[in-house]
Amino acid sequence: MVRVVRRSCREGAGKAGGLTVVIDVFRAFTCAPLFFHFGAGRVILEADPEKARRLKRLHPDWLLVGEVNEVPLEDADLGNSPTGIMQKGSAFFSGKAVIHRTTAGVSGVAAAVKRANEVILGSFVMAGAISRYVLGRDPDLVTLVAMGDRGERPAPEDEACADYLEHLLTGTAYDPVETVRKVLFQETAQKFIMGKKAYLPREDPLVCLQRDLFDFVLGVRKDGSFLEAGKIFQC
User: Strand pairing partners for 29?
Assistant: First the structure.
C-alpha cells in the first residue's frame, strides 16, 4: 500500500517529500487544466507577482493569469477564475503561453520542488487521473499538501480533496455528501456564493468541486529559470 503523508499550507509544502501533490481547489489547480483543455501551448508557474508581470512585459503575446490574495494581478489578462477562463474559451487560449501566478497553489509548487522527488498539481477535477498515475508509479512516499486559504491556514476544500485522494490511494473512508456540507457552508466557499466581489464569481465553486472533469495529470518540471506545468499522464 502507498504510504501517504498529509501536510498543509506553504510551510507544509516546504517540507514535502517523495511524490508530492500540491492541492489548490479554489482555484489555481482547477484553472491549470482548463488552460490545456482550451489549447494553451505552455503554462509557466511563477510565484513572484513582480516577476510574472515582468515576463508579461517581455512577452506581450503571452497571457498573464493570476492574483494576489484573490485580487486580479495588475496587468493580468485574467484573474485566477475558472469561470473567466471558461467564458474566454479556446479562441483566447489556443496556442498561447500562459503565465500563472497565485498566492497559494503556485507558491506551494515553488516551495515543494526544492525537496520533493516529483511534484504534480492537485484538485478534484483531476483526482481520478492523479490516483491512477500515482498507483502506477508506486512510489515509496506520497505527500499530499493541502495549500489552504492563501497558503496560510487550512481550508476545507483543499483538506477535502486530500481526503478524497487518500481514499483513492489507500481505501480510507470518504463521504462525498459530508464533504460537500463541510465545504459549501464555510467562508472559503461562501465568499463566492454571496456574490459580493466580481473577481469571486458565484460559479467558481461549482466548477472547482466537480470530480474528474479531466483525464490527465499535470506535472511540474524546470525549464531553465521557469517552472512549467505540463501533461505527464492521460487515462
Answer: none
Domain holding 116: CATH number?
3.90.1560.10
Give how many domains the chain has, as a whole number.
1
Q: What is the mean pLDDT of residues 127-137?
A: 98
| 136 Cβ contact partners less than 8 Å away, ≥ 6 residues apart | 233
- 104 touches 24 (CB < 8 A): yes
What are 50's three cell numbers?
A: 513582480
Question: What is the C-alpha R_g of the chain?
Answer: 16
Is the pTM above the cut of 0.90? yes
C-alpha 77: how far from its chain's center? 19
CA–CA separation, 111 and 120 (whole Å): 13
Backbone angles phi, psi at 5, to 5 degrees: -115, 135
